[in-house]
Specification:
Layout: E1 7-14, H1 19-29, E2 36-44, E3 62-68, H2 75-86, E4 92-96, E5 100-102, H3 106-119, E6 124-127, E7 147-154, E8 160-166, E9 186-190, H4 192-196, H5 208-218, E10 222-224, E11 231-233, H6 245-251, H7 256-270, H8 292-299, E12 301-302, E13 307-308, H9 310-313, H10 326-330, E14 334-343, E15 353-361, E16 367-373, H11 375-384, E17 388-396, E18 402-409, E19 413-421
Parallel strand pairs: 1-2, 1-4, 2-3, 6-10
Antiparallel strand pairs: 4-9, 5-11, 6-9, 7-8, 12-13, 13-14, 14-17, 15-16, 15-18, 18-19
């Protein structure tokens, strides 16, 4: 590859202790560090000190926008600042977060993958949920295999829970496999993508990836998982406890959930599952190169039904087997069911439970899905009074009518029981 080819690393950093280590590792591990540029939206608090960028400000490869953290307006807003104000004439863009580690010659590896796909006629974006690293256990804390993004469930508000999974078969791959989704924290593409598919600043946090996915696909872009280990990612929740955007919002009286709700409504309008004349998608709508239905058939997802094909659920790589007949295609879906389970300790005062059954039943009382709470989760429930709280997600051909929480004790048998209707 031409060593003069330039790459802009896109870093939206919100009070992040890993920002400077990320920059230094990207340069140290690049084959040609001189071609690496940085677009950084640094959302900072003066008292932190750990994200000071003064040592880089004299370098023309660094394009830095400093924003006091109380003026920050969410992750997609920060991404928009980078792409619209800091991206100049670079050839490629590498969209990341701001907490990463890099494999040796990562720049050349990405360019070779991308170039190989372009040579086959694709308009590629390399994207993945990156494997983890632990900044306190370097480098032995790095996950040793690449990951992919997979469908988990529809949320009730209409977006999709996308989860990481192993990129199965990666050791035998000679090129990147296709992907259903983009990742927020790792996308590599020609810089035209950042201009064609702008980040919508109304998408405050959740739903960013689904928004980018359907818009990029309908703008004619093709999505792929990198089949090699290139970059690692760290969520760093423990180190950044109390310093995340929603923490600061809460302390300063900003209703994070209200902003999230508006963003989700806007995504439903984008997905054509809701109509609202007050929502303006100008500049952030679907593209015209492909239709939304073409994406649904490619990915095996039905937005209006909140449904998915088994081929997708089994984590098979797209495209899904194509069905020309739309009526037949409509019958190939199972609906995705989501329920936020909460079992309160006050409803189960005993200390002798062997397990607590969580069962989803139909109108006749027949079980559709069930799970037994036991082990450490049950122990903490009994001894520490910690409520049982988790997201239940499974596929259905009929919706449950009720959820039942039912305790079982060897001495008392089936005992305390709580039932909730499901609307």
């Amino acid at each position: 590859m031409n060593k003069k080819t330039t790459i802009l690393i896109h870093l939206p950093a919100y009070r992040d202790p890993e920002l400077v280590p990320t920059i230094k590792d990207a340069l140290a591990m690049a084959k040609y560090p001189k071609r690496i540029h940085f677009g950084i939206c640094r959302q900072y608090c003066d008292a932190d000190g750990f994200d000071n960028l003064d040592e880089f400000r004299g370098d023309r490869r660094f394009h830095i926008m400093d924003v006091p953290y109380l003026e920050a307006q969410g992750l997609p807003w920060a991404r928009a600042q980078i792409n619209e104000n800091l991206l100049t004439n670079q050839d490629y863009i590498l969209q990341l977060d701001s907490h990463h580690r890099f494999a040796q010659d990562w720049d050349e590896t990405l360019l070779e993958m991308h170039g190989g796909l372009e040579a086959k006629g694709f308009k590629p974006i390399l994207a993945a949920y990156l494997p983890l690293y632990d900044p306190f256990k370097e480098p032995e804390g790095r996950t040793p295999e690449p990951w992919q993004q997979t469908f988990a469930s529809f949320y009730p508000h209409g977006t999709i829970f996308i989860q990481p999974n192993l990129l199965h078969g990666w050791k035998d791959m000679t090129e990147p496999p296709m992907s259903r989704f983009l990742s927020g924290h790792f996308c590599f593409a020609r810089s035209e993508w950042a201009r064609d598919v702008k980040h919508d600043p109304d998408i405050y946090f959740s739903g960013e990836e689904l928004n980018l996915t359907v818009r990029s696909y309908t703008h004619g872009y093709d999505m792929f998982h990198p089949h090699k280990l290139v970059i690692w990612h760290s969520t760093m929740r423990e180190e950044r406890a109390g310093m995340l955007k929603w923490d600061d919002d809460s302390r300063n009286g900003i209703d994070f959930n209200k902003k999230q709700d508006y963003a989700r409504k806007k995504i439903r309008v984008l997905l054509r599952t809701e109509e609202d004349s007050t929502i303006d998608l100008t500049g952030y709508d679907l593209g015209t190169a492909r239709t939304l239905k073409e994406y649904e058939k490619y990915a095996g997802i039905h937005f209006k039904k909140k449904a998915v094909q088994k081929y997708t659920l089994d984590h098979n790589y797209p495209p899904n087997p194509y069905i020309h007949d739309d009526e037949l295609w409509e019958r190939t879906f199972l609906e995705s069911f989501y329920y936020l389970v909460t079992v309160f300790k006050q409803d189960f005062p005993g200390n002798d439970y062997k397990h607590i059954l969580v069962a989803f039943d139909d109108e006749q009382g027949l079980s559709i899905n069930s799970r037994s709470i036991e082990g450490l989760q049950l122990k903490n429930f009994i001894e520490k009074g910690e409520n049982i709280h988790y997201e239940a997600m499974f596929l259905i051909d009929k919706k449950p009518a009720r959820v039942v929480y039912w305790g079982y004790s060897e001495e008392r048998g089936w005992c305390e029981r709580v039932e909730h209707k499901i609307n």
